[in-house]
Amino acid sequence: MKIELPKKVKTVIGELKAHGFDAYAVGGCIRDSILGRTPGDWDITTSAKPHQVKAIFPRTVDTGIQHGTVTVLMDKEGFEVTTYRIDGEYEDARHPKDVIFTSNLLEDLKRRDFTINAMAYNDETGLVDAFDGIADLKAKRIRCVGEPTERFSEDALRMLRAVRFAAQLGFTIEEQTEQAIRDMCGNLEKISAERIQVELVKLVTSDHPEEMQNVYDTGIAAVILPEFCTMMETEQHNPHHIYTVGEHTIRSMQYIRADKVLRLTMLLHDVAKPVCRTEDENGIHHFHGHPQVGAEMSRKILRRLKFDNDTIRRVMALVRAHDDRPPLQGRSIRRAIYRNGSEQYPELFEVKRADILAQSSFLQQEKLLYVDRYEHMYQQIMEKEQCLSLKNLAVNGSDLIARGIQPGKEIGEILHQMLEKVLEEPELNEKEALLAWYFKA
Length: 441
Hints:
With 441 residues, this protein is of the alpha+beta class. Helix content is 51%, strand content 10%. It has helices spanning 7-18, 28-35, 50-56, 105-109, 133-139, 148-154, 157-169, 175-184, 193-204, 212-217, 220-224, 226-232, 245-254, 260-268, 273-276, 290-304, 309-321, 330-340, 347-357, 364-383, 397-402, 409-424, 431-440; strands at 23-26, 43-46, 60-64, 69-74, 77-83, 85-87, 99-101, 120-122, 126-128, 141-142, 172-173, 278-279, 285-286.
């Protein structure tokens, strides 16, 4: 099998070999190359020790030297070069107590997580596939290298990575590997929220976000996102729904583009339904107030998972606004944009459509038509550059002070009154017209 290595990768491998060391491209870059995907980065494994790698290349960074990794800089591009190693005993399901360098490539490959990630290649030797990763790629299968319980004991995050790879590649998880996940998923409690977050984002933004079903089925969700388990188990006896809250959530994720904020919004848009559910005298379920409660729950969940403040803010705003349905009148649409925040548009329309498409067929076409009209009116408002916030108001605090209003709370109250008037009558957003309206009023 011939794999076309990038020129700089060939140069790194060539330099190491010229100095008497073995070197191969390894791991995900080989997997992706065989699958016809473009690798995100190229990792290199070598028999050279870190200090020997540093001696060969003029520009290096000690990115993980205690574990044998040195980043070699070629122009402005970095390539991680890691010494063949054997991991020592794992004490915390996260890190080996120590690392032993070895000159044996196979010893290095056997410590890796899955067979599809345990292949190495250079132009001279060709493909090294000691654990039948090629067969697993052909079978579209995620299988641990060796004994699954040993691999997951070494690093519990590998259990979530298995589901993530299945989602990214459209693969299934091999039976013994999946059973080990079910048996050992409790060890994910030992993994940092930051590492969980990275894998979760890769999963939900993959081509197969429906693998969240497997996150639930294997027991992983009970550890990393227990709210999702409650959603999966919450029925919706309501004409608008035919799925549990969790099943509806999974389907809604499939109907929206693979953007981090949008997929997280769909994951959490109905997170509060279980706590807001009521039942009327006819046995119909209602979920009054779930967007507002859900926004707050989303904040707590995303903070727990160590998401950045901007992501939290954006997801919360979309969750809060996802069920907002203003009347199709200019003043109502302008007020909705002001209420929800103009920065939520036009993404809010994507959220609404995904939500509707994941519901029952009851009034579905009418709901979609409503969103189309809502979006059309929004576009007209934006084209006309109508005022939707205080910053676009034709009058500011200085104008009011010039008219004799004392600085203080009253300034803000007057500006808000003016904004309310302009939301009703956008043509009034001119300085003299607004001042004349207020002071006559």
